[in-house]
Design goal:
Elements lengths: L2 H22 L11 E3 L2 E4 L3 H13 L3 E4 L11 E3 L6 E3 L5 E2 L2 H9 L4 E3 L7 E6 L4 E2 L10 H7 L23 H7 L25 H7 L2 H8 L4 E4 L6 H10 L3 E2 L3 E6 L4 E7 L2 E7 L1 E4 L5 H4 L6 H7 L3 E3 L1 E7 L7 E5 L13 E7 L6 E6 L6 H19 L8 E7 L3 E4 L2 H5 L2 H7 L6 E3 L8 H18 L2
Parallel strand pairs: 1-14, 2-3, 2-15, 3-11, 8-18, 15-23
Antiparallel strand pairs: 4-5, 6-10, 7-10, 8-9, 12-13, 13-14, 16-22, 17-20, 17-21, 18-19, 19-20
Helix pairs in contact: 2-14
The structure holds flavin-adenine dinucleotide and 2-acetamido-2-deoxy-beta-D-glucopyranose (5 copies).
Length: 466
């Protein structure tokens, strides 16, 4: 035998070994009893939507297992606990819409609610964080009926993207142009910087994404204290802690899906802290952001690959910083001094805002490119130093960082061309395809709307699993 021949013989043996292994990983008999998990439904992702689905299935008596990458439930709901005082600070999800869906979920999980206050009282100071200029006479615009009149034109965006065909051209206009076309200058600030956690280049976003996320529910949350609720102990993670305690036996934490076969029911190979498990279920419920990075292990076919590859999210970060030397009674708000509608250029911090922990500030940071924790924190230190120059506060203080959250991919979106080409009807057509259901933030963003949409979908999912 020539060496070349030898090599190819080895190659075939390797191929055989590889294909035998690929076959084996979905073979139930290759797993010990404790590593084989058989349920009606597998949920992947234990944030707002996945946890809501788990409680719903539990209460329905439908068996499930939930796979979560982190060591906790709650996803973008993140809560810091001050080690010395025990005070809790929500630095991700702040508030929930005061509707029956939210109240019932808090009540189901035994968490008392209260009206929302965004941290302790503080007086806003408007500063251009880039140039370090104080803007003493800046007055932020408030939301007017001019915006509501436009919003009311598109009720089909309130709960998702059930779009008419063709999609109205106005909805594809960059938001800055929409503001100009419909003279929304008075509401410009409130629809951009002034709304909850807005990511991305706010004046360039297609109008469709502004109306979908800054929808009647979100507008209502911003209107008055009775319209937005929080956990009464300022610990929005409490619902997720209680859900975990109740459902623990059916939740795999610190676990990720490494391979999937959804051709006949659902089989997922999951890496867990105690080794690989095979999950065998009838239906798969996805409470994750279905971007390709997350979806590749699920064994996508060409149709799924082509649709999901169009989705992108924005980089968005949150953190808590102490020992800043800044004034505890001041909300430092970033304003573009000479940008269009005073919207700051990216990347930028939205604000530094005092929390219920003395001396601690919350910040949110929006970027166009993925940014590391070290980069965000060094930008925070540089910005805080600029604020000292203006405010005359204690510049010798060295900031210390208490918490950090990476929210990439936030606010999933596709290009305007893809919207025109029917992305959203294609995406809806994937519901149930290959026994797979999409419940995470994609059609709506806010927690109460995700919960409502999940509640609306569960009967269909349960029926498909029976
Ligand atoms: C800073 C900030 C503030 C916000 N404020 C509010 C607010 O006040 N009110 C409001 O209603 N909404 C708010 N939101 C929106 C909020 O993100 C949504 O309401 C909600 O948390 C999204 O829920 P979800 O279940 O879709 O995703 P997430 O909460 O992100 O949950 C996804 C879960 O899936 C897990 N996961 C991801 N990928 C994988 C994988 N490959 N394998 C396994 N697990 C995976 C994650 O670890 C996470 O636990 C805010 C968002 C941000 C970023
Ligand atoms: C998950 O991982 C974290 C961090 O490594 C660890 O502290 C925690 O105990 C783990 N939880 C489980 C259930 O494995
Ligand atoms: C929430 O809405 C209910 C019903 O409208 C109302 O009774 C309550 O005062 C509101 N606020 C809070 C904090 O529950
Ligand atoms: C300024 O901050 C430093 C470091 O935190 C501290 O030691 C000092 O006492 C502060 N000075 C004043 C005037 O507050
Ligand atoms: C829940 O969704 C249904 C169907 O889209 C809608 O009619 C209803 O108003 C929603 N309820 C809440 C509380 O948002
Ligand atoms: C479970 O959900 C299905 C589908 O909605 C419903 O028909 C059934 O009555 C529910 N069962 C219980 C015990 O709630």
């Amino acid at each position: 035998m020539s060496p070349v021949h030898n090599l190819s013989a080895w190659g075939s043996i390797l191929c055989l070994v590889a294909s035998a292994w690929a076959f084996d990983q979905f073979d139930e008999t290759s797993y010990t009893a404790e590593n084989l998990v058989k349920r009606d439904i597998v949920i992947v992702g234990g944030g707002a939507s996945g946890t809501y689905a788990a409680i719903g299935l539990h209460d329905n008596g439908t068996s499930f297992v939930l796979v979560e990458r982190n060591g906790r439930l709650g996803g973008q709901t993140e809560t810091y606990k001050d080690p010395s005082s025990g005070t809790t600070v929500d630095y991700g999800v702040q508030a929930y819409h005061n509707d029956s869906i939210s109240r019932d979920f808090f009540s189901r999980l035994d968490v008392p609610i209260a009206a929302f206050t965004f941290g302790p009282p503080s007086t806003p100071t408007y500063v251009d964080f880039t140039s370090g200029t104080l803007l003493p006479s800046f007055v932020p615009g408030s939301l007017g009926t001019d915006y509501i009149t436009q919003l009311d034109k598109y009720p089909y965006l309130d709960d998702g993207f059930l779009l008419p065909n063709p999609v109205p051209q106005d909805l594809l206009l960059p938001w800055g142009q929409y503001i100009e076309k419909y003279s929304l200058q008075d509401s410009a600030w409130a629809t951009t910087v002034g709304r909850p956690a807005p990511p991305g280049p706010l004046l360039e976003l297609p109008a469709i994404y502004v109306f979908n996320s800054f929808n009647p529910v979100e507008v209502s949350e911003g209107e008055g204290r009775d319209n937005a609720i929080v956990s009464a102990s300022n610990d929005n993670s409490a619902i997720y802690v209680n859900a975990l305690a109740e459902l623990e036996a059916d939740i795999l934490l610190n676990s990720t899906v490494i391979a999937g076969d959804r051709s006949n029911g659902v089989k997922l190979v999951v890496a867990t802290p105690t080794g690989n498990k095979l999950i065998v279920a009838k239906q798969l419920v996805l409470g994750i952001h279905p971007v390709l990075d997350n979806m590749n292990p699920f064994g996508l076919d060409a149709r799924e690959q082509s649709i999901l590859s169009k989705l992108n999210g924005y980089p968005y970060y949150a953190g808590l910083v102490s020992n800043t030397g800044l004034s505890d009674a001041t909300l430092y708000q970033n304003v573009g001094a000479d940008t269009e509608y005073n919207v700051p250029n990216l990347p930028c911090f939205s604000f530094f805002k005092p929390t219920f922990v003395q001396g601690q500030f919350l910040y949110w940071y929006s970027a166009l490119q993925p940014t590391t924790q070290a980069q965000v924190e060094s930008a925070a230190t540089a910005t805080i130093n600029k604020l000292h120059m203006i405010a005359g506060t204690n510049v010798t203080a060295v900031p210390t960082f208490d918490a950090f959250a990476n929210h990439l991919p936030f606010h999933l979106h596709v290009s305007t061309q893809d919207i025109t080409d029917g992305f959203y009807s294609d995406m809806y057509s994937l519901q149930g395809y290959h026994n797979t259901w999409y419940i995470g933030a994609l059609f709506v963003i806010g927690s109460s709307q995700l919960w409502n949409n999940t509640a609306n979908m569960l009967p269909q999912i349960i029926a498909a699993a029976s």
